[in-house]
Structure to design on (475 residues):
């Protein structure tokens, strides 16, 4: 019971801090007069070039930018002097910081060398070719300069668009990945050295936590799906995927720590799914490819039809891996942020204290509930990603001795 | 207007996934009740199938997010 009370206290405390943080967000910007829960949630789950904890402590990160006509720019993001809402007060070599992300000023006339003081940012929605597009402007000496889109490689499919610069920075997400990587390295080295030095004693400490998970992945995932004789080749990959995703999922759940959303980022999950795609198809044997392009045991017209369907599923499998993980983790973060947003919706963005109190009493149990669910989701999604990877690998390397019986 | 339609589409996808995952879970529970000794295999299969159903729904939801 006391544990539950402690958890409740921690939860209320974290909501209090988040309220303070969001109050800062909504208070200081004339462009954000009305509280927009969707925009706030999106801002909190997106990647950034600064690492902000509770809107009070801002850690600068190494920023590595490349523009074809200008060359490389390498500096710390502290040059932007980030303030509230992770907006930079200064520009640097034509780059500015808005909502935690680096943008490049696209309009001529803006000083492209050195640092100048900025007067704020403006955001409008415009219709371009029948499609609504977000436009960002920076105010400098009474004039609004348009900002180029955020650097993306998606070609504008996922909300970004092609832009004039490339961002190779160590962002918030990259830093989180490095920290989780460091922690995992330490944890597994500690466990490994204990196995080496005390091979016959009972597991202790971090080793006692890792060993059951390790054995679970081996006995419930790797061996049943891949097979007793071949699983050792893929076991390191499965364990790396599982612990990397689990570590990042749980790291993102920690309140106050910037609540990074690494595994909820499509680029990150794309790379993990791409590695799985490569591993599966490199190791696919003759039967696997035969079942895709020339299914045995069915008439020829059906074979042609099936070749199309199976060929598509070749790409849909890793695509769903990527979407499932990113969707689940992002959805969890958005749900928590939306429940906290209830306080501001009921409180009319800080205008009505009574509404804020009612919203707070609604937000506390809902957020507590969501955080508990998210802990389960963190484990389940890491497990699902691993088990699906194992089943795809298993299907690719399986020996079909009785292929005709299946169909 | 398209935003509203996208939201309705996302809701419909969630209904479909809810029915699907509910059926997977319900049948798995029935199977475990019939054959408790096979509960480990059934649970792994259940999670796998639920993940497949969910994957289809997530594609629909993400498509509805990106329709502006």
């Amino acid at each position: 019971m006391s544990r539950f009370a402690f958890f409740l206290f921690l939860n209320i405390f974290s909501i209090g801090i988040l309220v303070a943080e969001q109050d800062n967000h909504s208070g200081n910007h004339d462009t954000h007069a009305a509280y927009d829960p969707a925009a706030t949630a999106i801002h909190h789950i997106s990647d950034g070039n600064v690492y902000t904890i509770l809107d009070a402590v801002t850690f600068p990160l190494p920023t590595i930018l490349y523009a074809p006509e200008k060359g490389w720019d390498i500096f710390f993001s502290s040059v932007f002097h980030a303030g509230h809402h992770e907006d930079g007060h200064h520009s640097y070599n034509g780059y500015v910081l808005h909502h935690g992300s680096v943008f490049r000023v696209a309009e001529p006339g803006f000083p492209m060398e050195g640092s100048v003081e900025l007067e704020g940012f403006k955001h409008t929605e415009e219709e371009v070719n029948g499609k609504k597009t977000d436009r960002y402007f920076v105010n400098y000496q009474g004039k609004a300069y348009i900002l180029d889109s955020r650097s993306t490689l998606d070609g504008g499919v996922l909300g970004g668009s092609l832009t004039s610069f490339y961002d190779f920075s160590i962002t918030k997400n990259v830093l989180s990945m490095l920290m989780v990587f460091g922690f995992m390295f330490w944890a597994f080295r500690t466990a490994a050295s204990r196995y080496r030095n005390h091979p016959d004693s009972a597991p202790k400490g971090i080793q006692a936590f890792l060993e059951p998970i390790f054995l679970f992945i081996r006995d419930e995932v790797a061996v049943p799906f891949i097979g007793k004789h071949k699983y050792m080749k893929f076991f390191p990959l499965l364990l790396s995927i599982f612990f990397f995703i689990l570590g990042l999922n749980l790291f993102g759940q920690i309140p106050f720590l910037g609540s990074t959303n690494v595994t909820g980022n499509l680029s990150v999950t794309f790379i993990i799914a791409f590695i799985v795609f490569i591993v599966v198809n490199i190791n696919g044997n003759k039967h696997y490819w035969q079942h895709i392009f020339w299914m045995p045991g069915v008439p020829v017209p059906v074979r042609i039809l099936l070749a199309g369907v199976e060929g598509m599923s070749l790409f849909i499998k890793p695509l769903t891996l990527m979407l499932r993980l990113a969707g689940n983790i992002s959805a969890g973060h958005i749900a928590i942020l939306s429940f906290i947003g209830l306080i501001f919706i009921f409180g009319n963005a800080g205008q009505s204290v009574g509404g804020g109190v009612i919203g707070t009493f609604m937000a506390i149990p809902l957020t507590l509930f969501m955080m508990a669910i998210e802990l389960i989701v963190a484990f389940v999604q890491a497990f699902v990603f691993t088990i699906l990877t194992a089943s795809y690998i298993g299907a690719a390397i399986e020996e079909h001795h009785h292929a005709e019986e299946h169909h | 207007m398209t935003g509203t339609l996208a939201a309705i589409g996302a809701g419909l996808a969630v209904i479909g996934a809810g029915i699907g995952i509910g059926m997977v879970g319900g049948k798995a529970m029935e199977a475990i009740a019939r054959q408790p000794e096979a509960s480990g295999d059934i649970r792994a299969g259940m999670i796998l199938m639920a993940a497949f159903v969910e994957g289809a729904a997530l594609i629909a939801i993400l498509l509805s997010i990106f329709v502006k």
Observations:
- The first strand of chain A starts at residue 50 and ends at 53.
